Every structure is written in structure tokens, then in C-alpha cells.
Amino acid sequence: MSQTQDESTTRSQPQRVDVLVVGMGFAGMYILYCLRQRGLTARAFEAGSDVGGTWYWNRYPGARVDVDSVQYSYNFSDELTQEWEWSEKFCAQPELLRYASFVADKFDLRRDAKFNTRVTSAAFDKETNLWTLETDQGDVATAPYCIMATGSLSTPYKPPYPGIDDFAGDWYHTGTWPHEEVSFAGKRVGIIGTGSTGIQAIPVVAEEGNHLTVFQRTAQYTTPARNRPMSPDEQREFNEHRDEWIREMYHTFNAMTGYPLPTKSIHDDSPEERRDFFEKRWEIGGMPQAMLATYKGVNVDMETNTVVADFVRDKIREIVKDPEVAERLCPPTDMPIGSKRPPIDTDYYETFNRDNVSLVDIKKTPIERFTEKGIKTADAEYELDAIIFATGFDAMTGSLLAIDIQTSDGSSLKQAWSDGPNSFLGLMVAGLPNLFTINGPGSPSVKANMIVMIEHHTDWIMDLIDYLAANDLNRVEADEDAQSNWVEHAREVAEATLMPVADSWYVGSNIPGKKRVYMPYFGGFEKYWKLCVEIAADGYRGFKLSRSGTKEAPPSVAAE
Ligand code: NA7
């Protein structure tokens, strides 16, 4: 594994660069690339031992992307596009990690990063106009700007069941999966959680394990991915028309293309016509839009939503042979389809027809504790050799709040977010100058193609840094009023839809005590990026730009 060379930095001799970067996932890598292009110096810190972020940590069985791989790719370098070929429509984690590594090698990105190093605090000094990062390895680095590329789903959540230390077998969390091979052959395995992750892992673990017990709290809607190999012709065709695709992606709701928008209302078709239409879409499969974008209004109108959701429930009853198990797998009727993060799957429902798979409803009979032998629910004890937590993440805010972020005048992220994740455009938080968040709450982020969002946010921040330099300015901060208006707008947009209805990580309800707020911006990617561009063209309307009184000290240590 490549590991950057590193000369440790200490408090007496902090490393001084132009921009600090936290995280070396797909965002951190692109940021370093952009900074290098501009001749700016950078220092990045990454907790993992290499690049890849989400795809570095999530090595669980069945992990794969659920946006078409060709669209889940960087767009910034035509050369990179031409050099890389994806093997499948929805590639598996090892290939995504190889892609990240290929990009890091090609652009020599590891040079400015220190791995195996977690940032613990970020402090802004208003006198010197510098952010100082400290890490768990004792590093200290400073810069006028700091970019948080910490990922939206990077703080794993494990419910604090009593007795975990008593369990004699092995347990794993999907978000911190070991690097070594994990074999479930001949083992009795339990998995807790049936979100996107559980739905990917369950069919694969069922193939390998002796017996798999699925502990389900809420049944999810999932639709067929119909994953398949990518032919070289397909890749060539995509590469030749890449520019058109990119243009198209920028003019969509979720920065993805290839899935036609619905043109009809459910009232335009008879029940039989609807059924035929749904059947066709179910056969084609693909990204969740294949089913969600069948009729207009699925995200806002419960009647339309229920028609689609009922089709999926009927499919479950058709696929799953045991009627009782099928009913248990049917999502509740008051949970709109698409309001939890919609997964796609390969043989998820079919897996429950296997003799070696059983399903436990832990809403009815909750898990009480772990025991030496396995898991004890309200009515039984399940003997297990291994347990997998597929219980998700403290999404969107967890990784940022894990860092002690504050300024010399007493502002802190913790305080700024005490009543929910307030942010202007998901890019900056009022009171925290020169600190940027990639895919922060209040941006389309997880409701859009993350790679396109990363490139858009990074380009926007780079333009802003250029603008400040060109205008002899060195400080930018979100205006309180602009931020409040944005937060209110984002709230109104979400509340006009069915999106906040379900309990989900989108609203933070999976984390005990977390304030319930629909965190992503649901106004659509196209509308959002156009607004960001317009704000920039308007002299960064809603941001306070200034020159700090103190002249910056010259760099004490040149970046390598
Ligand atoms: P999710 O989507 O948050 O799913 C977590 C699952 O774990 C879900 O089924 C939860 O049930 C279940 N869960 C969570 N906490 C508990 C407790 N305390 N007890 C029992 N069951 C629990 O996480 P994923 O990792 O699947 O996916 C995260 C994202 O990664 C995904 O959406 C993609 O964007 C990639 P619940 O539904 O809350 O009742």
C-alpha cells in the first residue's frame, strides 16, 4: 500500500500551507488536484491507510456502487476517462478502490497527504487568519483555508446493545470491515440492518454462510439492479459522448442521466396499463429511478406513491414463497417509497426462499442483549458464530462534529449546529470563516451523484479562493441572514414532499438524540448549481468577503 512520506510536524514548527484538506476520499483527491493546478500548497490528512474514503472503509461482502459506474466517475480529466474502463454497470468495491488508487497514482496525489492520521481539532485564529489542524498523531498544520472532505457516510453507527463483550464469536460493522479476508463458510451468521448495505450483503453472505439470520427492524423497498458486465463497446460509446453526458447530468434533478423523466400521471393509465408499465421497468431495473420515475408526483403525492409502493409489495409477495415471510418483508404502508434511501439489489427478496436464511422481526421482538452464544430477543435466543452490524452511519454531520471545530472568538460548529445543521448552501457555516464543507448538509449531496457534486463544490470553492486572491481579500464567511433564509428554503422544499416522512438517516432519526431535520437539499441539482453560479457571478451574494487586519506570516515550512 502506498503511504506518503512524512516529516512530522509539531506545535513548535507547524506545517504551513495554503489550504488544509481533511479526508482523502474522492473529494479530497480532487481538491488536491485542483490546488496543485493552481500552484497552491496543500496538506491533507486521512484516517485510513490509503485513498478511497467510502470505498476504502466499506469492504463488506456485496458492497458496490448503485449509480452507473460510468456516471460515478470523475469528469475533470478527459485523459483519465479514456484510460479507465469499468467492468460492470454497477461496479463492486474492489474495483472502485482500484479506480481511486489509479487516480491517486496518475496525478501523484498521495504526495500531499498523510495517512493513518485522524484530525481531532480545527481552530481558527481571527488575528492571524489561519486555521490550525491537530491530529491524533501529534501533527499541527496551518493555512488560511480549510476544506472538510470528510464524507457524508463515514461515521459508523453501532447500537449499544448490552452484552456485546460477552459474545464469544466475531462481530463486524460493514463500515469498518477488516482488510483481511473474512470467511463465513460453515458459520451461523446474524446480520442486523436491512438498509442499502444489509440489502447488498445479505444475498452474498447467505451464499457463503451455513445459516444466516436477518434481524430486520423496518422492511425496505428495493428494486432490481440488473447489474451486468460492461462491454468495451459500451464504454467506448460513453467515452466518445462524454461531454454530452456531462452536460445532461448537469441538467437533471440528481446529476445522473439515462433514466427518462415521467411524463404521465397515474390517472392517465388504467390499473392494467400501470401494471404493464411497472413490469417493464422492473425487468429493466437499474438505478432506483427505474421504478421511482414511472409516474409524475411519486415524491410528493401519497396516492401516486402508494400505487408504486403497492406494486413493489405485490412483487415481494410474488417472489417470496412463504407468505408469512413475504408479509414481514413488505414495508409499512405509511412509509412512502423513496423516503428512506432507495436501495437496488441483486436477488434480495429471492434470498429469503433459501433454506439457510431466516428473518426475525425485531420491531415485534426487539433485541434485548448479546449473550455469549449470540443474540437474545424478546422471545428467543439465536446462536451465532458471527454477527454483522449493517446499522448505518451518523450521516452528514457525524464526521464534522467529531472534530472540535472552533474559532478564537468562541464560535464552534457544535454550537452552530446545536439546533440542527445550519449551513449556507451546504458549503459554509456562519461564524466559521474560510472553512468549507464538501457535500455539507443543505446541499443536494446524497440526493445527487456524489462525484458530480464533489466536482461542482470543489470547482466553486476554487473559484472563490481565486476571486479572493485576485481582489486582495483573504476572508470569506457565510452571512447569518443568507444562511437562515437558505435553511428555511431547504426546509420548505423538503416539507412540500414525502421525503421527511420516514425515519431515516436523511432526517437523523437513526441516531438517538439527533435533531430531526431533513439534511440534504431536495430542490434538485440543476437548480442548486445554477444558484451557486449565480451567487458567485453576483460577487458572492450572501457571503461576507473581507481582508483580515493582520498580514499573514510567511510560511514557516514549505510544503513538499
Ligand atoms: P441505513 O440505511 O441507515 O440502514 C441501517 C439499518 O440498520 C436499517 O435497517 C435500520 O433499521 C437498522 N438499524 C439501525 N439502528 C438499529 C437499531 N438500533 N436496532 C435495530 N436495527 C437498527 O444504513 P446502511 O449502511 O444500510 O446505508 C447507509 C447508506 O450508505 C446508504 O443509504 C447508501 O447511501 C450508502 P430502521 O430502518 O432504522 O428501522
Index terms:
globular; 560 residues; binds ligand NA7; alpha/beta; FAD/NAD(P)-binding domain; disordered N terminus; 22 strands; 31% helix
What report would you give on this structure?
This protein is an alpha/beta fold. It has 2 domains: about 300 residues, FAD/NAD(P)-binding domain; about 230 residues, no CATH class. Helices cover about 30% and strands about 15% of the residues. It has 17 helices and 22 strands. It has a 5-stranded mixed β-sheet, with no helix packed on it. Strands 4-3-2-8-20 form a 5-stranded parallel β-sheet, with helices on one face. A 5-stranded parallel β-sheet has the order 9-18-10-11-14, covered by helices on one side. Bound molecules: ligand NA7. The site of ligand NA7 has 21 residues, from helix 5.
Distance between the termini: 21 Å
Structural class determined from secondary elements? alpha/beta
Dominant shape: globular
Count of spatially separate domains: 2
Unreliable segments of 5+ consecutive residues:
1-8, 553-560
Largest sheet: 5 strands, mixed
Which fold name is given in CATH as the topology of the largest domain? FAD/NAD(P)-binding domain
Summed over residues and divided by their number, the pLDDT gives a mean of 95
Secondary-structure map:
Layout: E1 15-16, E2 19-22, H1 26-37, E3 42-45, H2 54-57, H3 78-83, H4 93-106, E4 113-114, E5 119-125, E6 130-135, E7 140-143, E8 145-148, E9 170-173, E10 188-192, H5 196-208, E11 211-216, E12 223-224, H6 232-240, H7 242-250, H8 271-284, H9 289-292, H10 302-319, H11 323-329, E13 344-345, H12 348-351, E14 357-361, E15 367-370, E16 374-377, E17 381-383, E18 386-389, H13 398-401, E19 404-407, H14 413-416, E20 435-437, H15 450-470, E21 475-478, H16 480-495, H17 525-537, E22 543-546
Parallel strand pairs: 1-7, 2-3, 2-8, 3-4, 5-19, 8-20, 9-18, 10-11, 10-18, 11-14, 12-13
Antiparallel strand pairs: 5-6, 6-7, 15-16, 16-17, 21-22
Helix pairs in contact: 1-15, 10-11, 15-17
Ligand NA7 binds next to helix 5.
